[in-house]
Amino acid sequence: MRWIKRSWRQVFRTSLLLILFYPSYAQSHPHVWVDAAVIIHRNDAGEISALEPVWIFDDLYTASLLPDLDQDQSGEVEKAELLTFARDAIGNLQEWDYFLKVKRDDEFGPLYRKEIIADADVLNNRLLLRFKLDLEKPVALGTSVQMQMYDPSYFIAMDVIENHAVSYLPAAMNACTHSVTHPDDNLEDGTTLSDLVFSDEEVAQNPDLGSIFAKTVTVTC
């Protein structure tokens, strides 16, 4: 199917995809679930030089997607087909900042180099997608970086794996520090996100709904 090479946002919003893949969820949010983490790359000076999000999709979405990635109809999705999907999918996410919102304590967000290294694999019946965003300018030592990974429409629910939220390359360097802040921590009066209910109208009118549910990962090297 040709839709694999179109923008994820265009794909996810088509009613045909919802009917074929997720008929029981057609009137709700979200439709796809992702476990997320990030690899922090550092240069010889110990500065943050690249960010590498790692996304592991739920098994239902993976099972629905894989047949369409089998472009040669061989009955098996080969590595080359996975790489083609990874490059196309990540390339189409540039418009939405790769579902990665980054802030620095000096208030300037990072700029990425144009070439992006993307990879994909299937592990334990789940699609793993990772891509490396090289920074045009490394983050100076001692500067805190805050990251949130989310789909603004909340069609995809991205949940940071707290016990494995961050890893570092090269691993032998002096350790950085990191923390994970849950979105519930920002709510008052004991309210939790599970208590919040959004109408269809509110969802349609909120172009950044996913940020409400996003955990914040803070890294300082």
TrEMBL record:
Q: Name one Pfam family in it.
A: DUF1007
State the PROSITE patterns in the record.
EF_HAND_1
Task: Cite the entry's keywords alphabetically.
Answer: Signal
- Name-wise, this protein is ABC transporter substrate-binding protein
Signal sequence span is 1-28
Q: Which InterPro entries match?
A: DUF1007, EF_Hand_1_Ca_BS
